[in-house]
Amino acid sequence: MMRPASDVTVYLCVAPVDMRKQAASLALLVEQSLGHNVFDTALYVFTNRKRDRVRIVYWERNGLCLWSKRVEKQQFIWPRSIAGETVTMNGRELNALLDGFDVWSRGHRALDIRRVG
Predict the structure, then answer these.
(1) pTM for the whole thing?
(2) Could you tell me which of 79, 86, 94, 70 has the C-alpha nearest to residue 29?
(3) Residue 106: its pLDDT value, please?
(4) N or C: which end of the chain has fewer CB within 10 A?
(5) With 70 as the cut, is the pLDDT of residue 82 above it?
(6) CB neighbours of 6 closer than 8 A, spacing ≥ 6?
(7) Which residues does 51 contact at the CB level (< 8 Å), separation at least 6?
């Protein structure tokens, strides 16, 4: 399975989109609605209203690439926000999101332990 590197920039579109859209339509959405340049070195991630599908569009040297994933019995945990807004994340967080983790909740708090016993 292909997964992004941990240091890649990822822009997550918060609003749901029609999953019938293909690479060219999503690239147009990136530029017109999100205000980003699809030719930049970044991944642009979209989901549908049910949150059971994800599409990722990106430019790779000589053409647009489209990556899709559909989960059968679960949903992707997506941020809640106003329509048209994007959330910036990195590849590590995207991989966790694709694996079903809630990357929006606060993780374990750091412990300040001085000694054992």
Answers:
(1) 0.84
(2) 86
(3) 67
(4) C
(5) no
(6) 90, 91, 92, 95
(7) 16, 75, 76, 77, 78
